[in-house]
Amino acid sequence: MSHVIRIDDEVYTELQKRAQPFVDTPNDVLRRALGLNAPTGEHGSAGTERSDSPVMSDGEHDRGALFDMVKAGSLSPGERLVWDRPRRGERHTSTVTPGGRVRVDGSDSAPFRTPSGAARSICGHEINGWRQWRRERDGVLLEDLR
Q: 78-92: buried (b, 16+ CB within 10 Å) or exposed (e) per residue?
């Protein structure tokens, strides 16, 4: 369940300074500041997929949204995912980490917790990565693997 809180401009400005661009939400910054682990589940604590902060350690809180699929065997650590954008003539690739995160190939950024975070880092706007990324070996959408 998500809750609405009101903050003044000064607090919002400080949250923006502490955020990682195109990655963090205000909720992510507050969780870090309060020493809270990343929320579990696809939608996190605020009902969005925006909790894509970088991997901090090898603990349970580092698990990404694909972890259950890795655990079940429908995805393997090191498996490649592809996102074809034919109108742009582009093909993007990423790799599934052992913890179920998505590492965008050719990028210096930390692995993303969700496929949507990885896709957003490429296109620069909100997008449902579950409907974009496919398992390279057979072309099955991540959305269909859930």
A: ebebbbeeeeeeeeb
